[in-house]
What does this fold into?
Amino acid sequence: MSQVYVTRRYRFCAAHRLHTDQLSPEENWAVFGKCNNPNGHGHNYVVLVTVKSGGREEACDLSRLDELVNERIIERFDHRDLNSDPALAGLTTTGENIVKLIWDILEPQLPMRRLHKVGVIETRDNYFEYGGVA
Ligand code: NI
It folds into this structure.
């Protein structure tokens, strides 16, 4: 059985600040550098969602996926402060935590383990990828 995967690309713009209450202000600065700036900063995030191709009915399936991602991810994060998102409370808003949160939101909504992988491009040089617990 050969399996084809299809990836859709989405975008949102959001602010964040890398910071943890478990470290002192000096330690936060040492670990996160300018990303710890108290006023935060923004990124144009790109989200890559890879699903197992359903074959022939793929075209309408993808419009369902678009609706799902727009409703659950883009509307939730676009033009927001990620540090204020309840699911990220107490976590540092790193690409690692963001990509895992997006997976955790989408995975239960896609039947039969259809979600294969989520990728988040944060900057020109930073890409994060998560495929769930093996
Ligand atoms: Ni950043």
Notes: The chain has a mean pLDDT of 93. Residues 16, 35, 41, 43 surround nickel (II) ion (CB under 6 Å). Residues 48 and 54 are 18 Å apart (CA to CA). The chain has one domain: 5-130.
